[in-house]
Amino acid sequence: MDPFATEFWDYANQREFRMQQCDECQKLRWPAAAVCDHCLSPDYSWVPISGKGHVLSWIVFHRQYFPEYPALHTAVAVELDEGPIFVCCMPKEFEETELADAMPMELVWEESHDRHGDYVIPLFKPVGM
To answer: pLDDT 10s per residue in the chain (129 long)?
Structure first.
C-alpha cells in the first residue's frame, strides 16, 4: 500500500470515513494522492465525509475473481454528497437489492478478513434498508 492508502485504512479501522482535502483549493482528493489534481498543491488534510450519496452506476459480477468476493456480488459507484465517486461492494445482506439510478445511499461498516489480516471496510447500502 502507498502511504495515502495506509492513512485511509487507518481511519477506516477506527470507523472514520475520511478523504484528503487540498489545503490550498479545498478540493477533495479521491483516490488519495501526493498532489492535488486541480492546483498541484502537495498540502492536504484528512477531513470527515458524511457517508451519504446516491447511486451513479453498478455492476453485478457473475464470476468469482477473488476468494473474498464469491459470485454473485454487486459493485456500486456512489457519488458522495461532497462530490467524489466512491466504488465499493454492497454489504452481503443487500446483494439482492434492486438498485436504481440516483437511489440514496448511506455508509455502513463491515468487519472483514482476508489473507492480509483483519480490517474494517466502508460499504454503502440503500437509505432506510
So the answer is: 788 889 999 999 999 999 999 999 999 999 999 999 999 999 999 999 999 999 999 999 999 888 877 888 899 999 999 999 999 999 988 877 899 999 999 999 999 888 888 999 999 999 998
Same domain, 55 and 108: yes
Rg of the chain on CA atoms, in Å: 15
Considering its fold, how many domains does the chain have in total?
2
How far is Cα 105 from Cα 109, in angstroms, rounded to an integer?
A: 13
Structural domain range at position 3: 1-49
Q: CA 52, CA 84: separation in Å to the nearest integer? A: 11
Global pTM reads: 0.91
Measured from the Cβ of residue 50, the count of other Cβ atoms closer than 10 Å reads 11
For the chain, counts of helices (H) and of strands (E): 1, 8
126 close to 103: Cβ distance less than 8 angstroms:
yes
Q: Which residue shows C-alpha cell 445482506?
A: 93
The x, y and z cell numbers of residue 11, run together, are 481511519
